Amino acid sequence: MADPGLPPFMTNSAGGPPPAMDGSFGQSMGAFGALLKLQQNISDKFPKAKVPWNETRKFLKASTIEQIRSTSLYKFHMKFFKDIGLGNMQLISYAPMHYIFAVPNNPVCNFYPALQNQKVCVATTDALHRFFREDLELECSVEETECIKNGDPYCKFKVDLQPISAYQVMLDDYDKKILSGIRPPVDDTELRDRVRTLTIYKLLDSGRLSEIGNAYMQFASNMPVQEKVFDPPWKLQEELSSIAESHNTFGGAFGAMAQKIQVPDNSAPAAPAPAVSEETAKLQEEAKNTGSFAELLAKMKKEQQ
């Protein structure tokens, strides 16, 4: 099998944060305020973005850019960074454990209108590092290689994963059986796919355990790890979108969504439902058959006339 090779990564340093004295005082304060807001978004949202290994595993095992882009994790990652305020990031180059992301029209660069000929996207670099390290549990290094403020057409960032960390998340019990010389209970097609992935990651060589694979297996045998199982952060959003598509009225969808996101408290007996007036009950029933807030309000006003 041909070696997939590595993309032509650049080695120049991303540098430190841009100095505040470049530009006017107003520009510096504007940059500070914008960065403060961005940092607050990161602090608020990153703790809620933790991804289970089974989803990260699909991302790691995808062997082409198209396959990576089709994973739920990649789609979540791109939308997550856009919602935070880091722009329309996209993956443009890939090799196993090495990724290059690009951000056209990077909004972070707009924080520094007076700065030129330097890389300024430290916030994006730090956010990528936090996302991979904290939310995906993948040790990595992140470097900004190109920047719009440095005269480049896009801002580009390369992410290099630490191999041991990537193997720990990527390999499931069936993969470890293969590396141990034991056939897992899978069909021939899945077996070939798994062997191909292990070969791409240089754990197997011509169907046999490679030196890297042998070293990892010796290392991993002394690292008992209990994989945590939990829902990915995008599951609730997908369920709510599915509910919205499956209901014909706003009232029905709203009720189903409210039930989905409600967290019951089982520590105490449920209180009896409060009594409602005949008028309130009528409005509740009307909402179930109404397509929008505007339509419901129109009906209420009509009845009051």
Could you walk me through the main structural features you see in this protein, from its secondary elements to its overall organization?
The chain is an alpha+beta fold and 305 residues long. Among the domains are: 25-166, Muramoyl-pentapeptide Carboxypeptidase, domain 2 (2-Layer Sandwich); 176-220, no CATH class. 48% of the residues lie in helices and 10% in strands. A 4-stranded antiparallel sheet has the order 1-2-4-3. β1 and β2 form a beta hairpin. The radius of gyration is 25 Å and the shape is elongated. The relative contact order is 0.10. The model is unreliable at 1-17, 261-274 and 290-294 (pLDDT under 50).
SSE map:
Blueprint: H1 25-45, H2 53-61, H3 65-69, H4 72-84, E1 90-95, E2 98-103, H5 122-135, E3 140-146, E4 155-161, H6 163-170, H7 173-179, H8 188-200, E5 204-205, E6 208-209, H9 211-220, H10 235-246, H11 250-261, H12 278-288, H13 293-304
Antiparallel strand pairs: 1-2, 2-4, 3-4, 5-6
Helix pairs in contact: 10-11
Question: What's this, in brief?
Answer:
Helices cover 48% and strands 10% of the residues. With 305 residues, the protein is α+β, with helices and mostly antiparallel strands. The chain has a four-stranded antiparallel beta sheet with strand order 1-2-4-3. The chain has a two-stranded antiparallel ribbon with strand order 5-6.
- The helix content is 40-55%
Q: What's the shape?
A: elongated
**Given this structure, which CATH class of the domain at 25-166 is correct?**
Alpha Beta
Total helical segments: 13
What's the main sheet like?
4 strands, antiparallel
Amino- and carboxy-terminal Cα gap: 78 Å
Count of extended strands: 6
Helix-strand sequence: HHHHEEHEEHHHEEHHHHH
Query: What structural class is derived from the secondary structure elements?
Result: alpha+beta
InterPro entries: NO_sig/Golgi_transp_ligand-bd, V4R
Domain 4-vinyl reductase 4VR: 103-159
Region (Disordered): 265-288
Biased composition (Basic and acidic residues): 279-288
